[in-house]
């Protein structure tokens, strides 16, 4: 689609690739890019032919965070901006039926890192890193970054990272579970696309229900999760895809999933 100024949007088979495209600012989020990203994600989510979304970036990094030079709208506070302009993006990534893979070719900082961590999966450059430099300018992390990092790193490591305005390398992100895969910087996007194409061949309904279960499980009790799993399993068992998988098993062939 050619209507975007700050993004590139491309559909390849059952995968949509959305690339942040402000490389001169290290893909800092200005108002235009926030608006376009929400529109692009909504478009991909509404496309029934799309099963996986890759959220990548052009240039040396995923994003340096918010574009601090832009400022706020008249009467707008920073709280308003976070909730009104970033909030819908973060909510949609978590709620959409599609699997979303973030692909970071270098640094991911601030709210850019928060958006990458909000995705279902993450591929990072081997030489990349995650930065939480908020305290260097007297600010706190936002975009849900503190929620994410606390769960990955534990309180002490998370607090040290945030308080010192520090960074953690890609290898540490991989070991902590923040990143799923590492790749050379110039192969990050291709690695994410190859992974997306493989996932797109799997049963869409099952992947959708898995995502819902995992997103909810952090807030549910064990017993509540068992009940949710049972309901999700009922949905999956009744799909044509489940019947196709069983047939393919007996016929000793790969299943062909249609999302039905």
From TrEMBL:
Give the protein name, as stated in the record: Enoyl-CoA hydratase/isomerase family protein
């Amino acid at each position: 689609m050619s209507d975007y100024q700050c993004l590139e949007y491309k559909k390849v088979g059952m995968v949509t690739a959305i690339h942040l495209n402000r490389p001169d600012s290290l893909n800092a989020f200005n108002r235009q890019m926030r608006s376009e990203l929400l529109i692009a994600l909504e478009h991909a989510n509404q496309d029934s032919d799309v099963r996986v979304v890759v959220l990548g970036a052009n240039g040396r990094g995923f994003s340096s965070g918010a574009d601090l030079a832009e400022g706020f709208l008249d009467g707008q506070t920073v709280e308003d901006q976070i909730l009104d302009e970033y909030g819908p993006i973060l909510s949609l990534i978590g709620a959409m039926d599609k699997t979303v893979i973030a692909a970071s070719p270098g640094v991911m900082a601030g709210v850019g890192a928060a958006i990458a961590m909000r995705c279902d999966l993450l591929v990072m450059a081997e030489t990349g890193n995650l930065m939480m430099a908020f305290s260097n300018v007297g600010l706190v992390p936002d975009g849900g970054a503190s929620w994410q990092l606390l769960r990955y790193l534990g309180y002490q490591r998370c607090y040290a990272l945030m308080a010192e305005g520090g960074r953690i390398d890609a290898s540490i992100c991989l070991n902590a579970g923040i990143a799923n895969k590492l790749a050379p910087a110039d192969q990050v996007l291709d690695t994410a696309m190859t992974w997306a194409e493989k996932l797109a061949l799997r049963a869409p309904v099952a992947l959708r229900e898995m995502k819902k279960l995992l997103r909810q499980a952090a807030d549910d009790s064990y017993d509540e999760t068992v009940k949710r799993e049972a309901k999700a399993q009922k949905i999956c068992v009744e799909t044509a895809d489940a019947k196709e998988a069983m047939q393919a098993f007996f016929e000793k062939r790969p299943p062909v999933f249609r999302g039905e």
